[in-house]
């Protein structure tokens, strides 16, 4: 591996997937046989780029600062060296008890994800490796009992670690390895004070891993606090982020966002699992209530929901139980941008701002969206709220087999856009990103559906096109045949009229009450009664608006003569937007079929004869 010194005389490696180097395999790495066995079980055939570069260096004891795209395998790149180090120390003394590894993450969802990876990789290690996730919602006494057993690995947000260190429940005296995952988000999520406290508590000489999707000034701050001459890996794969993703932009009026969303999902123009990004939590419920009018089921995911519910939604979505998630990613879009801009400007005089930080400054120019004009003039760092601090959708969470990302509300920066579309097209698969863009002349014409940041959609889109162009990707225009779509407008208007502001507030409150019950009181019950898990479904109707059954069916007279293809302009048909799904949602179909059988068996009555005849009087 070729290494070179950067401007600060620090070892640095710039790598691409096309280098003519000896192919590194998991068999060629000095890993414990139990770890190799787990890798085979988890179908890890060969290391990804970040794994092949980082693992050998980590096993040598080097500090590592790695930048690699979302979904590139960064978690395994640090988990395997951590497990290997623990197994080596315990090879002669299995009774050794010391907390030797601390993994810091910005969100609860990511901590659960890391914990699952550790459990799967250590599945053949027996009791040699013990890990604890401190973000679990348990009482302080239970958490102290978990720490009293002195686990080998701690996974947590910085705040939880500091709290347990301060009350003497956790000791870091024997710490040997420190990992900060999604390092560029940790400070942005309001953990600055906790990180500074940890920097004093962590012993000197600890091996450090900083894993990030971007190298910002905040990562540079963490490097100064914890690292000793780290090897910097700036990894660019042959097919960078968004490479396997077809990207399209649809210019439409504000109310037409709802019209096109109805057409896309009701007529299944896009098939497969989809994540819809909206601007804030109210928009989540407005869109969910709107889709409910047409019998289209969806889940809501935002920082207001209990952590257990959020984690359960993601797990069920990955299993294929739900097809549509409506996500409010407001803290990624609005919360971190000004913080990053401030940090980048602060370091500008010292010539330590890298390309990513400069890009942040460029994105935060005058024509960029400023959600709070008075706050944007302040140089003070702004912390996120408690709910937002430990939550993020577009980064970290491992959504699997997402066919489409729909930017219902365009993000306010091109970097946020890149992270959002990174939810699809992962692990070499293809995906699609479809973004609604409101032209400047259409902004504010439909007050009930207007959203403030849409005023700057065209300016943001131009930055997105420029950024994606530098990466070698194209954002193509997509056109619907609006004359054919117009026939559905009266249905859209009828449904949208029922989704009032009061209905949204009631739905939001009811959803929280329901999810709190599911998250807390019924958790143990469903662990013992898994067959009743259907009661924990998150895509049920909230029923806060007037139900109109006729809207759930699309009459034949509304369909264009050419069928679904008639809704798309000819140039858009050539792009091949539709992503075919090989099968229906088997889990959902099976559950509904079994429930139906149960009802028929329980009610020993004959079927209603009136339901078996059509208007002509013959049996169906």
Automatic annotation (TrEMBL):
The entry's protein name is: RNA helicase
Q: Which domain of life is it from?
A: Eukaryota
Domain (Helicase ATP-binding): residue spans on this chain:
55-233
Q: Give the E.C. number(s).
A: 3.6.4.13
Provide the Helicase C-terminal domain boundaries.
259-483
Which intervals carry biased composition (Basic residues)? 588-603
Q: Where in the cell is it found?
A: Nucleus
Gene Ontology molecular function: ATP binding; DNA helicase activity; DNA/RNA helicase activity; hydrolase activity; RNA binding; RNA helicase activity
| Ranges for domain DEAD-box RNA helicase Q | 24-52
* Role this protein plays: ATP-binding RNA helicase involved in the biogenesis of 60S ribosomal subunits and is required for the normal formation of 25S and 5.8S rRNAs.
Record carries keyword Hydrolase = yes
Keywords tagged on the record:
ATP-binding, Helicase, Hydrolase, Nucleotide-binding, Nucleus, Ribosome biogenesis, RNA-binding
Compositional bias annotation for Acidic residues: 351-371
Q: Which organism is it from?
A: Talaromyces stipitatus (strain ATCC 10500 / CBS 375.48 / QM 6759 / NRRL 1006) (Penicillium stipitatum)
Q: Where is this motif: Q motif?
A: 24-52
């Amino acid at each position: 591996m070729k290494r070179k010194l950067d401007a600060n005389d620090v070892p640095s490696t710039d790598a691409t997937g096309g280098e003519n180097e000896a192919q590194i395999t998991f068999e060629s790495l000095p890993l414990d046989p139990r770890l190799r066995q787990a890798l085979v079980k988890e179908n890890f055939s060969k290391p990804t780029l970040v794994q092949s570069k980082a693992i050998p260096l980590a096993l040598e004891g080097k500090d590592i600062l790695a930048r690699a795209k979302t979904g590139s395998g960064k978690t395994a790149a640090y988990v395997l060296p951590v497990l290997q180090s623990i197994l080596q120390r315990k090879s002669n003394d299995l009774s050794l008890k010391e907390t030797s590894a601390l993994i810091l993450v910005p969100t609860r969802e990511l901590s659960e994800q890391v914990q699952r990876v550790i459990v799967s990789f250590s599945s053949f290690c027996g009791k040699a490796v013990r890990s604890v996730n401190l973000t679990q919602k348990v009482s302080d006494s239970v958490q102290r009992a978990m720490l009293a057993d002195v686990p080998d690995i701690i996974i947590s947000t910085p705040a939880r670690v500091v709290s347990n260190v301060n009350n003497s429940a956790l000791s870091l005296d024997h710490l040997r390895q420190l990992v900060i995952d999604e390092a560029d988000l940790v400070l942005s999520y309001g953990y600055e004070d906790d990180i500074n406290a940890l920097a004093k508590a962590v012993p000197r000489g600890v091996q450090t891993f900083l894993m990030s999707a971007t190298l910002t000034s905040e990562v540079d701050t963490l490097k100064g606090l914890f690292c000793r001459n780290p090897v910097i890996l700036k990894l660019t794969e042959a097919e960078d982020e968004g490479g396997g993703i077809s990207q399209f932009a649809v210019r439409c009026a504000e109310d037409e966002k709802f019209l096109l969303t109805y057409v896309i999902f009701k007529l299944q123009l896009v098939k497969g699992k989809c994540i819809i990004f909206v601007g804030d939590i109210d928009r989540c419920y407005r869109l969910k209530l709107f889709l409910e009018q047409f019998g289209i089921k969806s889940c809501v995911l935002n920082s207001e929901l209990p952590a257990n519910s959020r984690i359960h939604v993601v797990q069920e979505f990955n299993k294929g139980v739900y097809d549509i998630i409506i996500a409010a990613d407001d803290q990624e879009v609005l919360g971190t941008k000004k913080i990053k801009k401030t940090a980048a400007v602060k370091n500008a005089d010292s010539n330590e701002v890298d390309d990513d930080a400069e890009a942040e400054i460029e994105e935060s120019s005058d024509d960029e969206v400023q959600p709070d004009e008075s706050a944007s003039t302040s140089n003070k760092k702004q912390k996120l709220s408690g709910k937002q601090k430990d939550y993020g959708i577009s980064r970290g969470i491992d959504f699997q087999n997402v066919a489409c990302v729909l930017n219902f509300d365009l993000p306010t920066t091109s970097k946020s856009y890149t992270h959002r579309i990174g939810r699809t097209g992962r692990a070499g698969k293809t995906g699609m990103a479809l973004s609604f863009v409101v032209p400047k002349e259409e902004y504010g014409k439909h007050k009930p559906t207007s959203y403030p940041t849409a005023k700057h959609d065209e300016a943001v889109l131009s930055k997105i096109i420029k950024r994606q162009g530098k990466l070698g990707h194209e954002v193509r225009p997509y056109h619907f045949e609006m004359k054919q779509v117009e026939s559905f407008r009266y249905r859209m208007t009828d449904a949208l009229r029922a989704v009032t502001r009061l209905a949204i507030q009631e739905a939001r409150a009811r959803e929280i009450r329901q999810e709190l019950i599911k998250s807390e009181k019924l958790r143990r019950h469903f662990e013992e009664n898994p067959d009743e898990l259907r009661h924990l479904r998150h895509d049920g109707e909230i029923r806060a608006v007037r139900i109109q059954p006729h809207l759930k069916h699309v009459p034949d007279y509304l369909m264009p003569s050419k069928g679904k293809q008639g809704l798309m302009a000819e140039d858009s048909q050539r792009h091949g937007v539709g992503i075919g799904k090989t099968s229906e949602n088997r889990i959902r179909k099976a559950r509904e079929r079994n429930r139906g059988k149960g009802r028929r068996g329980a009610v020993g009555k004959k079927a209603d004869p009136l339901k078996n005849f059509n208007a002509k009087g013959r049996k169906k």
